[in-house]
Amino acid sequence: MSAMPGVVVTGLGFVTCIGLSKEAVSDSLRHLRHGIRPYPPFQRPDYQVKVAGIVGGFDVDSRDPEDWKLPADMPKLRLEQLRSLAPHCAYAIYSTTKAIADAGLSPEMVSSERTGMYTASSGSTANLYAYMDKLLKNGPRRCPPQGIVSSIAGTLNFNLVSFFKILGSSTGFVSACASSGHALGHAVDEIVLGRQDAMIVVGAEDCNLETILPFDCIRALSNNPDPDTASRPFDKRRDGFVGTGGAVTMVIENEEKARARGARVYAKIAGWGQASDGYHSMMPHPQGAGIARAMKNALAAAQAAPSDIDYLNAHATSTQAGDAAELKAIRHVFGSGARVAVSSTKALTGHALSLSSIMENAFTVLAMNEGYQPGSAHIGEPDDETAGINVIRESLASPMRLAMSNSSGFGGANVSVIFQHD
Amino acid sequence: MTPEEVSETMRRCPQESIDAAIQFQTDRDPALAPVVVMGIIERFAEPHMREKVRNADDQTRLFDDLGIDSLMMVEIVMTIEQVMQVSAPDEELRTLRTMGDVKKYMDAKIRGIPFVAPKPPVVLAHDAVASALPMTAPFLFIESARIEGDGASAVFAAKAAEPIYAGHFRDEPVLPASILMEAVGQLACLYVLKSGRAEFETAAGKAWFSSADGIRCSRLCRPGDVLTLEVKLLRAHPPLATFSGSVLCEGAKAASIGELTLACGPLPAAAAEPAKA
Question: Residue B12: which of A66, A144, A146 has the nearest Cβ?
Fold first, then answer.
């Protein structure tokens, strides 16, 4: 039934505030256990924001990677490689190693002309700031040569493509909180067009003050100090998102080739769509016009009707404007009273910016594969805009055949992806 | 720099090199430079190379032996410049290839005397080897060569050995030790002819075998083995030039020559055998 047959998900790897393994992540999703904690650098009287989704297992706070403490099962890095990394690149090397092992790809298959890698991160603001500070203070001849590649947007791509010896297509995507959705969508196309047999899609963000705090300048962060309620998409009293970081990697493959090698298939990718608001650099379109069209485009690509969709992982970040616009768009596309179960897993993780799209795509695939629908946590009093929309407040042991995952970013960029149970 | 600034700039360097750098701030003693420089190189080398850095001698090559690439070199130099208050222009740095070069360079910088750049290596591909040496097929055993400082290395021409295996031995092809010695001798000849050293200007393109001592063979070389040859000039007293030599088979030592002496220059009409060194 799909217009884009032949792309399947075969590997997943996670570094998130709700777990570093698919088992831990799935357990958190199923039981609605969040990863939000008071974040020490925010505990200042002049900061209203207090909490973040904190990634465990990695101590990457120092601007000097040689000070870092990485998990015991982190792949071995040469000194020269380590010194080129931003914190999120370390997360991503870990998640990508796990995803490759999960997919059962041999080193020869990873480093092959038929395998590519698309990445998404916003770069490392912390490293860029530290690097520019040193550069302007000491001059260019007194600055480490790795400064550029460990900081600018593209650092994830530079470091991972070289580390994993990728020979096929590679590029990085920068569309803010839709970035890794664009990376996945274009990776799907790369396989559909026959250019590649496998694509490794990586989203990652630093999980630190420099990445998260700037969002408080636009009043987008929750100032609620209670980790249990700070992130509550669709709740009437939501007051902004909770920042997080980490890395998630998804391996997708040409279905025929994946099946021929006996790969375990998590799900098929039925189709994807994108559309733009054409409205404002930061604010979402009040009616969610762009995300509505992205959902319609994804449905058309998957040759599916709205009523075919069992579960929708919403972008909903817990901001007043964003959640309301997306709810309007959902009602517009699916109709009032539609059966589609809607939740935002950002209640558990917070908002992971460039990483969030691939993270939530991976959550959706994991839940689909295991036959449950993750609930939308922390809703005390549902927003009026949820009227006529089946927002599920608990995880349901209901299988899904088709599931959709939405993402929206600055500038009104919107991506919607549809997965199909295998 | 204050001791604290030196310690911060040299973070992760061996303590003795930090101490030497701190002392250097007050007395600028050039004798301290090697300890400081070696410590900084050790800090930026890959961890598995650090032992090699500690045991390096003046001949140790930064890139080939220690894996120091151009970006690591930038960091090494940047740190040296800071703690030793010298400035190292890129065009001078590009000429440094061995630990010895680095030490000599730093010494010149600290004393404020001009630095004479070491000669760049001479790299000879097969065509260049074939036109430099008078030997030819089936008796040319050097595939390609590199001449640098006091020594030279070469890749043995495996193809040239093929006809020899047919007869040595029947049903058990082994490269004759005499051919290994000949190959090392050919590399020594190449050094005399192409190193550009003033001592060999009178050689006029000729070098003859004179003597060999201390030959040791320690493993058999067979078809398919990759052999590399090395010679090092021990003495040059024209017309005689004395080398040590070795053969590596698949990276392991297969043969060595304690002393191999060549007589350089046109052969005197009366002398059938040149005098022993």
Answer: A66
Burial A214-242 (b: 16+ CB within 10 A, else e): ebbeeebbbebeebebbbbbbbeebbbbb
Does B12 lie at the interface with A, CB-CB under 8 angstroms? yes
Q: What's the mean pLDDT in B143-169?
A: 91
Catalytic residues of A: 177, 315, 351
Interface contact flag, A79 B44, Cβ < 8 Å: yes
- The residue among A66, A68, A76, A79 with the most chain B CBs within 10 A of its CB, best to mutate, is A79
- Tokens standing for A257? 């080739």
Residue identified by tokens 């999980």 is A207
- The reply to whether B48 belongs to the active site is no
Q: Which helix (H) or strand (E) holds A276?
A: strand A267-276
- Give percent helix, percent strand, percent coil of chain A, each to the nearest 5: 40, 20, 40
pLDDT tens-digit readout, A94-132: 999 999 999 999 999 999 999 999 999 999 999 999 999
What pLDDT score does A3 carry? 46
Determine, for residues B74 and A66 on separate chains, whether the beta-carbon distance falls below 8 Å: no
Tell me whether residues A145 and B74 touch, CB distance under 8 A. Answer: yes
Give the separation between CA B230 and CA B64, rounded to whole angstroms: 15
- What angle do the packed helices B33-44 and B70-84 form, to 10 degrees? 140
DSSP state string for B214-243:
EEEE-S---TT--EEEEEEEEEEETTEEEE
> Taking phi first (over 0 means left), then psi (-120 to 50 degrees means alpha), and beta for anything else, what does residue A380 get?
alpha
pLDDT band with cut points at 50, 70 and 90 for residue B276: very low
Length of chain B counted residue by residue: 277
In angstroms, the first-to-last Cα distance of chain A is: 13
Judged against a pLDDT cut of 60, whether residue B69 lies above it is answered with: yes
Q: Indicate yes or no: pTM above 0.90.
A: no
The CA distance from A53 to A256, in Å, is: 38
> What number is the ipTM of this complex?
0.82
Q: What is the CA radius of gyration of chain B?
A: 23
